């Protein structure tokens, strides 16, 4: 049993660390579950979970969804995304796959990175890192996105391609082909470096 603890609750973005073994094994702070009809997002100033908006479409996220602490999508992340004009100036998004139902957010989990989905939203690089719950009883063997069921990956790509688009509206985002663990590691390292630069850490 550890006797080390935070006297005050740390800010989920700035007060938690990147993870046990980044970029392979990272922390994921979960904002949304596959059962949420409302989009929740961490308030950047306070660190509390805020209601962003109800989902406008019938789509629900196919996995747990949140961000990697102490990451920031700035110029380095943008340089890894062909066609992007800039980073989205948010922490790096992450989707975490779990066999068992996890039905509430605002939790911290260990996530093993296996790949990602390139997304450009309004000219901004908005990567979605794909990971599995580290000690999951079904997916714990997965090391790369190529080992996941293809249908599951396509479901994630379809969700992000359509979740902002209403009938009779043009598509708002561009989704590319999913990439593997090696490129995902580069994106995480770039986002960590962007964070250190943005928040002036050495």
Describe the structure.
The protein is an alpha+beta fold and 202 residues long. The protein has a single domain, classed as Inorganic pyrophosphatase (Inorganic Pyrophosphatase). It has three helices and twelve strands; from the N terminus they run E-E-E-E-H-E-E-E-E-E-E-H-E-E-H. It has a five-stranded mixed β-barrel with strand order 1-4-6-10-7. A hairpin with a 2-residue loop joins strand 8 and strand 9 (124-125). It is globular. The model has no long low-confidence stretch (mean pLDDT 93).
Helices and strands, in N-to-C order? EEEEHEEEEEEHEEH
Mean of all residue-level pLDDT scores: 93
Which CATH-level-2 architecture?
Alpha-Beta Complex
> How many angstroms does the end-to-end distance come to?
32 Å
CATH class: Alpha Beta
Structural class determined from secondary elements:
alpha+beta
Uncertain residue segments: none
Using only CA atoms, what is the Rg?
16 Å
Major sheet: size, sense and barrel closure?
Answer: 5 strands, mixed, barrel
CATH fold title: Inorganic Pyrophosphatase
Total strand segments: 12
Task: Note the total helix count.
Answer: 3
Overall shape: it is globular
> How helical, in percent, are the residues?
10-25%
Number of domains: 1
CATH superfamily: Inorganic pyrophosphatase
Proportion of beta-strand residues: 25-35%
What's this, in brief?
By secondary structure, the protein is of the alpha+beta class.
């Amino acid at each position: 049993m550890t006797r080390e603890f935070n006297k005050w609750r740390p800010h989920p973005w700035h007060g938690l660390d990147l993870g046990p073994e980044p970029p392979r094994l990272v922390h994921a702070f979960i904002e949304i579950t596959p059962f949420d009809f409302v989009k929740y997002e961490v308030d950047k100033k306070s660190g509390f979970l805020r209601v962003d908006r109800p989902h406008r479409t019938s789509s629900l996220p196919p996995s747990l969804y949140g961000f990697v602490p102490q990451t920031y999508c700035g110029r380095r992340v943008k340089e890894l995304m062909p066609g992007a004009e800039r980073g989205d100036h948010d922490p790096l998004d992450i989707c975490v796959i779990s066999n068992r139902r996890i039905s509430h957010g605002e939790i911290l989990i260990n996530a093993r990175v296996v790949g990602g989905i390139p997304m450009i939203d309004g000219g901004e690089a908005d990567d979605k890192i794909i990971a599995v719950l580290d000690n999951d009883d079904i997916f714990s063997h997965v090391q790369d996105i190529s080992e996941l069921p293809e249908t599951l990956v396509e479901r994630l790509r379809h969700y992000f391609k359509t979740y902002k688009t209403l009938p009779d509206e043009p598509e708002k985002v561009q989704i590319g082909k999913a990439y593997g663990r090696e490129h995902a590691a580069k994106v995480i390292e770039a986002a960590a470096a962007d964070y250190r630069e943005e928040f002036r850490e050495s």
